[in-house]
């Protein structure tokens, strides 16, 4: 229980005798202990088979599943479907602010994904480009590559390769930056 008034009106200051904050904390702990104990007691009274299934069912619940269930309810219940997707004049109370906002976020998803991936790959890309551009230029200048500027351009990003999340090449070569 949170009480702000008595603490502000108390002239003795915080921590003095009769401080309402200490009493409120004690009440919260008592409530928390009571509900935890009653929850454990009710869980212990369930059959053993149900006790084993509850953590398994909890592991199965994930954001895509919850979103799919919510979408099914909104799409299949006519009243909710009308509230979310009908025009405002036709009773779509969520269309003006919620549905249009979610649609705008969905439209930005691809662009945001490009920024995230680009920021993750930027250090490797910069390093490899600083090596590849002079190398391709040197090989072209010495006439090892022939006279095809498009092939030269295609050869510049080749050292970047395909990276996994831990910045390791698919082929197994690990790039490490820094001291070491």
UniProtKB/TrEMBL annotation:
Stretches for region Disordered: 1-30
InterPro entries xref list: Mem_transp_PIN-like
Organism: Tuber aestivum (summer truffle)
Subcellular location: Membrane
A GO-annotated cellular component: membrane
Keyword tags: Membrane, Transmembrane, Transmembrane helix
Main location: membrane
Family annotation (Pfam families): Mem_trans (PF03547)
GO biological process: transmembrane transport
Name under which the protein is recorded: Uncharacterized protein
Topology of the protein relative to the lipid bilayer: Multi-pass membrane protein
PANTHER family cross-referenced by the UniProt entry: AUXIN EFFLUX TRANSPORTER FAMILY PROTEIN (EUROFUNG) (PTHR31794:SF4)
